[in-house]
Amino acid sequence: MNAAPIPRMSAEDRRELVLHAATRAFARGGFHGTSTDAVAKEAGVSQPYVVRIFGTKLELFLAVFARASDQIRTAFEDVLAQDLAPDEDVWEHLGLAYGALLTDRDFLQVLMHGFSAGGEPEIGAQARAGMGAIYQTLMTTGCEPDRAKDFIAQGMLLNVMMSMHAPEHAVDGDDIFGLTTCAFGEMLPALAVPD
Each residue of 65-107: pLDDT tens digit? Predict the structure, then answer.
């Protein structure tokens, strides 16, 4: 009996496969600590194939980093496109949308690695463009600039705390416990997934 042939992946599907693998690899090692060979191994493809699709490691990282920033902006745009009742707090809905993104540790780590690699001119430019787009999306609410800034600052605090695995290590009596419970609030139990 012959096995059914495995369907060939489209070029877009193969690109997505590599992008997902690159997200996982860059989340672990950052820009400087991840090679295109590591991405290829993660994707189950050859290293020359990764280079053929994306060119350089920098171009691949920029694609992964831009996708992470766009994911936040898109989540906020989706909230703002909803027909919320006048008494509904748009900021609460934006916060919930961001909270839903926090479960994807790879996405968060890529953001953190991208911000920390901002000394690389192209990565710094991508970080500024991504953050600027998120800020401008929040400003469409008609808020004051300080409101958008404070919202972004809260999100960055959550990113840092997720990067250090604070939710799963929040033990009453530890110095970080109060900040962790205050920062995450009702989201904490869902994010406190053991290492």
Answer: 999 999 999 999 999 999 888 778 999 999 999 999 998 999 9
Q: What is the phi/psi pair of residue 53, to 5°?
A: -75, -45
Q: Do 190 and 161 meet the contact criterion of CB atoms below 8 Å apart?
A: no
Domain edges within the chain: 11-163
Q: Topology of domain 11-163, per CATH?
A: Tetracycline Repressor; domain 2 (1.10.357)
| Of residues 1 and 53, more confidently modeled | 53
Band (pLDDT 50/70/90 cuts) for residue 2 is low
d(Cα 136, Cα 68) in Å, to the nearest integer? 17
